[in-house]
Amino acid sequence: MSIEAQSTVRELAHALYPGPDWNAAHMDEGGQFHRVLVAENEAVMRMSRTPQAARHMQRRVDLVGSLAGRFSFRLPTALSPVWHGAEFSAVIQRYVPGTAHRPRTGDAASLRRILDELASVDVRPLEDLLSRPFSFRGPWTAAKVAATMGALPPDLRAPARRVLGTVASFAQVPASLVHGDLAGHNMRWSEGRLLGVLDWDLAAAWDPALNTAYLALWHGEGFIEAIAPSPDVAWRARVWLGAMNLESVFDATLDPGKDIDALVRKIRPRLAMAARAADS
Question: What are phi and psi of 99, to 5 degrees?
Answer without folding.
Answer: -135, 170
